[in-house]
Specification:
single chain, mainly beta
């Protein structure tokens, strides 16, 4: 059969190691089994292909390609190509080769592979009389390589705990082999055992802290993912990490909240540097006055072996002559738990034209069930400890959007 030539040729796919004898024609070496191969037959039902003579078998190789990719099936018959011999590719099951694919001499180009393309492809050497002198088999396997994810990707545990990590197969054709290892080592610690996709720790020790690698492989390829296990022997709560995020404008005063239980060893530090000299600890919070852009970063609160991260982002101010004057006035400058609180956001310099005022709590999707923010007024009927934090009054005008922040600290909440 003749097949249309394709302009672009797919890349060479992975091949197995099962290659044949590669005997030199016309010597008659061991002849491979011809079972399962056929011609495309007539237009009616297909008939299995049966050669008239006994062609030399040039062996068989496996080719693997993922769905949608390209691969070249290369018949190792160049040394047997005497003058007058042509090569013809056929499918072993008698199905016509799809017109997406093309033949060039001893190479069959498989383009945009589909599941239906899987099977045995036979390259035949045919002389001028039509006799088949030799055959080469290419076993095309359409297989998706594995994609995995680890659950959890990071965990902090205490010595003696028995945590586990699951290597979950997101996609890929079975059979898939899963192998766990410790990063930088071929062997797992004695406290760890692999049970299929599960990496199970028994009585974990501080020395087991590290990164663990799951490698999933099948005939089409392999993928790896890494999970981190931290063993914290400080405190009884396992040192679990909580994370928060705050943003502020340059020059404002911000309170970074620490939700951990107060203790004598509670302290704050900044990752990768020292605390600003304008920072003081107020009960459990870290207060930074007149914040600058350089104060942005990750701050860590520790208490009784637990850690909490607060990421602070300070926004640089730009001079805008159309900026209104925004003043925030609370009805009580030191509210306590149970108090009533009104906070007004007053705007001057816009004559009330094209003005929209709204309230929001930084780092939260809403301000809380007991907080009612309507235009310039934010009202808290009964103050609770959860109301602590940074609030922002945003003023939208025709000239732009402006804001002023207000930090609510509740007395008696420590």
């Amino acid at each position: 059969g003749q097949y249309p030539s394709q302009g672009s040729q797919g890349g060479q796919g992975g091949r197995g190691d099962q290659g044949g004898q590669g005997g030199i024609y016309p010597s008659q070496g061991d002849q491979g089994s011809q079972g399962g191969r056929g011609d495309q037959g007539g237009q009616g039902e297909r008939y299995p292909y049966q050669p008239d003579n006994n062609p030399t078998s040039m062996g068989q190789q496996d080719y693997y390609v993922e769905p949608g990719n390209n691969v070249q099936l290369v018949a190792n018959v160049v040394g047997n190509m005497a003058p007058g011999i042509n090569t013809v590719w056929k499918r072993g099951d008698g199905v016509p080769i799809n017109r997406r694919h093309s033949q060039q001499n001893n190479i069959l180009y498989i383009n945009n592979a589909e599941r239906a393309d899987q099977g045995i492809y036979v390259c035949q050497g045919v002389d001028t009389t039509g006799s088949i002198l030799f055959e080469y088999n290419a076993n095309l396997v359409i297989a998706a390589s594995p994609r995995i994810r680890l659950d959890p990707q990071q965990q902090i545990v205490r010595p003696g705990d028995s945590p586990q990590i699951e290597c979950q197969i997101v996609q890929g054709d079975q059979p898939i082999r899963i192998q766990w290892s410790r990063e930088g080592s071929q062997e797992l610690p004695t406290s760890v055992a692999q049970n299929g996709p599960i990496l199970q720790f028994r009585g974990i020790a501080v020395s087991d802290t590290g990164r663990y690698v799951c490698k999933a492989s099948n005939a089409a390829g392999q993928s790896e993912a890494v999970a981190e296990v931290i063993v914290n022997d400080a405190g009884d709560d396992g040192g679990m990490i909580e994370m928060q995020q705050l943003s502020s404008s340059q020059g404002a005063t911000v309170d970074l909240p620490c939700r951990l239980a107060p203790s004598d060893d509670m302290k704050w530090r900044k990752e990768g540097g020292s605390l600003p000299d304008r920072a003081t600890q107020v009960r459990t919070a870290l207060r930074i006055e007149r914040v600058t852009v350089e104060d942005s970063g990750k701050y860590i609160c520790t208490s009784q072996g637990r850690m909490q991260y607060v990421t602070l982002m300070v926004e640089r101010l730009t001079v805008n002559p159309a900026k209104p004057k925004i003043s925030i006035t609370p009805s009580n400058t030191s509210p306590a738990i149970g108090d009533f609180l009104d906070v007004k956001c007053e705007v001057e310099g816009l004559a009330g034209r094209g003005l929209k005022v709204s309230w929001a709590k930084i780092g939260q999707s809403d301000m809380g069930d007991n907080v009612n923010g309507r235009a310039t007024l934010m009202r808290i009927e009964t103050v609770t400890r959860e109301n602590e934090g940074l609030y922002r009054c945003t003023v939208e005008t025709r000239a732009g959007t402006f804001y002023e922040d207000y930090t609510l600290s509740v007395s008696g909440s420590a």
